[in-house]
Amino acid sequence: MKVIIVGGGIGGLAAAVAFHQRGWRVEVLERAPAFTEIGAGLSIQPNGLRALDQLGLGDALRSGGLADPLAGIRRANGSWLIRNDVDDLKRRFGQWVTVHRAALVDLLRTALPEEALRPGSQVRDVRPDGTVHHSGGTTAADLVVGADGVHSVTRRSLWPDVPGPRYVGYTTWRLIVPPHPVEGSVETWGRGQRFGHVPMPEGSVYCYLMANAPLNSRTGLEQLRTRFAGWHGPIPALLDSARPDAVLQHDTYELPKLRAYFAGKVALLGDAAHAMTPNLGQGACQALEDAVTLAATVDALGVGAGLAEYDRTRRPRTQLIAHRSRQVGAPAHWAWPPLTALRDAALPRLPSAFFERSITPAYTWTP
């Protein structure tokens, strides 16, 4: 049996590893000239680690250094809006790991035979019968997996009439700065903008910033330093230590709900199927879950029944997580002062069970 994976990111490579370990012939078509990831830090939460455990790779990430979940959310002046019991979260759900995106891609890539990797392959069209037209010619397989991201060629090929990605109204900057003392993983909310910092195992700090902005607007590091200059420490110091060439900016998209994650012999996974806002940090984790579930169901049940089972189990879950992520992040981007004042007064008074309802479905997944 042969599977073609369209897209060599985290989800695509994880699917390739899962099928390879089951004895399938694997071909990964990646449009970039090399298999790498241009990105910053990444938090792999307990459910993502359990998915990696299915590939025998979870301990390799854990050995690089464990991390803590989000300690809480502050106001721009430093006062707490939400404070999490970090030890209780780890006790109930499991471990977190923070890693550079490129390191995770490399871990997955090295678990595959070199001949399975096809960099520099631009996919032009995917057919329901398992035929893929790309820059190197035409290839066919028993199964095709579209793991080619939010602007998926695979999805457009098979569902040309389905609405495309929707810009959610805010843009995101990501960067890694030199070592700096920080109080764990913390997010800070202002009016229509926020800042988060996450310590990396080797001492550097992963920072992410989000702000309401028109689509395709671009903001440089100096403007970001000015924008966040009055916020509590260590936010200004973190931005002061950043290099301009280390800042990545991407507009934030999500997908409307799809009615199916497969057609014929083709399945979608990760952002190609359910691109979501980053508010729960679940994008990569859901792609990892997709990958191991898809390989397990198709290998056990055959392509037709396996794809139906994959869709039955994965689509409701991922669409729920996407909905929760949208809900959780919305208050951070309120910009009207009376509304943000109400938010800042109400959040500290809400019971912890209110927040647990948002996170529990994500963390409690098991293969």
Automatic annotation (TrEMBL):
Coiled coil: none annotated. Residues 2-323 form the FAD-binding domain. Keywords: Monooxygenase, Oxidoreductase. One of its GO terms (molecular function) is FAD binding. InterPro entries: FAD-bd, FAD-dep_Monooxygenase_BioMet, FAD/NAD-bd_sf. This is 2-polyprenyl-6-methoxyphenol hydroxylase. It comes from Streptomyces zhaozhouensis. The lineage of its organism: Bacteria, Bacillati, Actinomycetota, Actinomycetes, Kitasatosporales.
